[in-house]
Amino acid sequence: MGYATYRDLKVWQKAMELVTAIYTSTQEFPKSETYGLTGQMRRAAVSIPSNIAEGQGRRLEGDFQHFLRNARGSLLELETQVLIAQNLRYLTQAQTEVLVARCSEVGRILNGLIGSLRKK
Predict the structure, then answer these.
(1) For position 2, what pLDDT does the model report?
(2) What domains does the chain contain, in order, with CATH numbers?
């Protein structure tokens, strides 16, 4: 694979930026959501770069693909939770658009990486 560590992967870097954006966006959620939607969104967000790192660390392409697919699942879970937060009026339309755009960017890069590994 053409990179030294998971930190060199563009998808991991973008996923880390997404985690920061989610933590920032959920700071103003109601305190009653601390163990609800706030916690779920943060866990899903953290799971994305964590799965990328774990998969790359396994050093086996099959394992890496498996963990990348897990990351994609967490990403789709997070995007759904962002939309739920908007429906509950915890996020504005503008905040939602930014977060969904970030999710889409990570998703495109993830799908490209999964596809390139599948071709090998």
Answers:
(1) 55
(2) 6-119 (1.20.1440.60)
